[in-house]
Each structure stands twice: as structure tokens, then as C-alpha cells.
Fold Oxalyl-CoA decarboxylase.
Amino acid sequence: MTHNVSVEVTDGFHLVIDALKQNGIDTIFGLVGIPITDLARLAQAEGMRFIGFRHEQNAGNAAAIAGYITQKPGICLTVSAPGFLNGLTALANATTNCFPMILISGSSEREIVDLQQGDYEEMDQLNIARPHAKAAFRVLKAEDIGIGIARAIRAAVSGRPGGVYLDLPAALLAQTIEANHGKRSLVQVVDPAPRQLPAPESVDRALALLKGAKKPLILLGKGAAYAQADDDIRALVERTGIPYLPMSMAKGLLPDTHAQCASAARSFVLAEADVVVLVGARLNWLLAHGKGKTWGKPKQFVQIDIAPTEIDSNVAIAAPLIGDIGSCVGALLAGLDRAGIDKPEGEWLAAIAEKKETNVAKMAALLDKNPAPMNFHSALRAIRDVLKQHPDINLVNEGANTLDYARSIIDQYQPRKRFDSGTWGIMGIGMGYAIGAAVVSGKPVVAVEGDSAFGFSGMELETICRYDLPVTTIIFNNNGVYKGTDVNPTGGAEPAPTVFVKNARYDKMIEAFGGIGYNATTPEELTRALSEAIAAGKPALINAVIDETAGTESGRLTNLNPQSAAKK
């Protein structure tokens, strides 16, 4: 007599979801289509949060900033080929900025791709992703899904964080295996980002360099903010008495109003310091590569970084301190008394204070003006004053002039509350970062956008409204890229390359999706609109009308923009 014994099975779809959930990942950002639509449906059915976007690049940016905020890899899910390529831009940006993110894309089967047989959206995605990611993996068997996701998680968050690509061919998702076997194949990652302690001799070397410094400076990068070693970083700054300079996404590690903050004397301290401690900051173009007239007098560097290959990348580093930032800063703190490090000399601190006072007075004079129409300074003054009353709000900021002025005008009071264009200085991160920050932090977001920068991701206003997120977007509308006054040199009817539609009403866009729109032409109207929008906690957009003559070419980056010498 034959007995039919039914065996419970599972499939690739469920194994992917189970593996993510087992590792504490509860949110997916993405855009559905063949072959991953059912994966998104099942993830939602299994209790995961799926945030659907209108463009994969914006979903990827949301995942990246979610990873930065939480220290867990943000997940972006895309379809194959074009969808993958859209997400790849965000993946590359995440890797460059050291944000932990995993891009998961469906793909064609290997045998079809390798023979170039012309499958639907056929593309060799794994090899395309490799140069732009920290790591890239493909899973071909259902029983390997657990290992594949475990490897992706560990690669994304360990050492220097970054973007990871995970390739899931369509046939894999439909593969079935015995349910118990599938459950046993899952992996819970243990200690995915272990501490990396600095060598004792490297700590002593750094302390000796600091002890001999006459004009020390601490420079905080976004790596310092990502580390979430906030208390120890503050203790290092305050116990040593050393002035500090935060890079833009490190603003708020200590309040920008802190007495030791040297932001208002940035050029002076960079040029005059003799010993600079880099905490999670890289000497890339944002810091003039550590050389040239920006850095003035010769100086020595202490550099805290988890990647040994970052040391000496532009200039010689006298005291490299290799390890995770929390462990390195803690080791310096523990050695301060042993090394006998005193507070900096009064002459150095007095010189900084004098320079700060002068520059603050100059900025105050600019901010006190009330031109009609508004310029960047008067509009940002209004925003600054409102946000001062809401220190826990997430601020997203991008543009050319809009980014450069806001960075120096709007103060931050809490860590990991400012998100901007980052290491590449790219435009297009705005709405993706705003959505990602709102979803994982549970806090409101204000996105301050140049009108050009907003154009890269503006359709995500519908996403913001669909999920009813507390995001207020402010468009600095000056009718064009940099400014709206360029003219066609031929005298023809077509606009100049930098000019947009005159007097556009961006506030009408969000009203089309059910959000709240405001049109602000004065600082008073902008103040009222922003206060109301924050209080409402609903999707809102403020069209802030800026003088179209305001702004400069590439903001303050004119040195990077070659000008034509040709004359007619």
C-alpha cells in the first residue's frame, strides 16, 4: 500500500523575505515590475514595509540615507536592465559616500545572458555593478539565498560601509525547496560590523603629536556622524578644548552654536592650524585635497579612518589611527591624561574668536537685508529662524547656491539631521533622501531645494503624498540653473541653456496630488508657510520666489567650472 506524504515547500520569494526579516530588516524601497512584483507583494503581506517610488534612482537614494541613519543596510529593489541601471546611480553614490545599502535586482538567466540570446531586459548586471559597488553577488540556487543575503549585509556595513549589489535571476525566485531545508539555510549575521581597535602605538603617536601642537584643529566628517559615537566625540572636543570644524553632514554632532565651533572662521583655521585631527573625514576635493593655498602654513595630520588605504591619499599623514571611529576616539580619550595634553594656547583661541566675530557680523549684515524680491540670504534667514524652534527636524539640502548658502546659514543642533549632496556634490538626492529620512526616523523632514536640483526627483512628490509623509519641500525658484537671466546669444526664441519657465508655480504640483501648496514672495510669507506646514505634519511644498538675478555660476565652485576663452 502506498502512502502519499505531502511535504511543505517554500520558494525563493519567501526565502528572500525570511532572510531579510531574520536580520532585522523591515523596510524595502523600490519600484515594481517583472520579475519582482510578487516579491514586493509578498514582503508587504509578511509584515515588511514596502515604499514604492516613481524612479529607481530615488528609491536607491532613500535606501542609502536610511542606511546612513540606522547603520543597517537600506534595501532597494528594482527590475532588471533599465531599472537596475537607474538604481545603479544611487548604488555608486552610496559607495562613494560610505552609506550601507543593498541594491537587489531581478535579472535574466545566466545561460541566456552569456550567449546574448536577446532575453527581455537582458543585461550582464553583475559585471556592470562590480566597479560601482563595494561588493557584488549573484544567487543561483534557492538554498544559497540565506548565505547571499548574509554576505551582502556584512559587506555593506563592515569596515568602511558601502553599496552592495545582489543579483537574483527570475528563475531563482520561483525555485522551490523543502520548507525545513529552506529554514535551515537562512543565516543570522553575527556582529556584522565588529569593532576594530587601533594599535596602542598609533594612539601614543597621535597623542604625542597633539601634545606638541600650538594651533590644533579637529575636523569632523560625516563618518564621525555615522559612527554614532556622539558622546565620546563631544568629550574629546570639550576635554581638549581644541576648536573643531564640522563638514556639512557632521553639523550637529555638537551644536553649531558651540563655543569651540570654528565654522565661521573656516578659511582661517584651515590655513593657520599646525596639527589637524581628521575624524571620519577624507582629504578629497571638499577639503582642497589637503594642500594648496586653502591649507596655508605647513601642518601635520592625525587621521582616524577604518580603511588603511585612505591614509596618504593626498598628503603625508604623520599619525594614522586605523580602526572604527568609536574605538579610536575612545582610545584618545583614555590617553589624554597620560599624555599630559593641555588646552590650546590662548593666543590661538583668541585669534579664532576674533575672526569668527568679524565674519558673523558680516553675515548678520547680509541676513538683515530685506530685498524685494527675496534673495538667498533673506529666504534662508526665515527658514533658519523657523528650524531653530524644531531642532529634531531632518534637513535635506541640495542645489548650487541653495546648498552653499544654506550650509553656512542654517544651524544644526542634533547629529545626523542634515543630509546633502555629499562627496560627489551631485544633484538629485533631494526627494529620495527626504522620503528615506521620514520613513526610518519617524521625524518630519524639510527639504530645501534649488529649482534645478528639484527637477531630478520632483515626481516623488506623488510618493510623499501617497504615503502621507511629513515632508515639506521648499523650492528656491529663480527661474533657472544658477540664475534665470541668461539670454540666447543668437537672439532666437529658444531659451538659454540655464533658463527655465518663468514664474513657474511648483506649489501647484503638490496640490495635484492632494498635498498643501504655498507661494511665498517675502520672508514673512515664507516664515508663515513653513510654520504652518510643519505644524500640519502633512505633505507640503513652498514655492519660494527668489530674485532671478541672485546666484552665481556653480555656487561657490567656480574654480571647478572651466570657462571658454573663445571670443567672437
The longest strand covers residues 101-107. The mean pLDDT is 95.
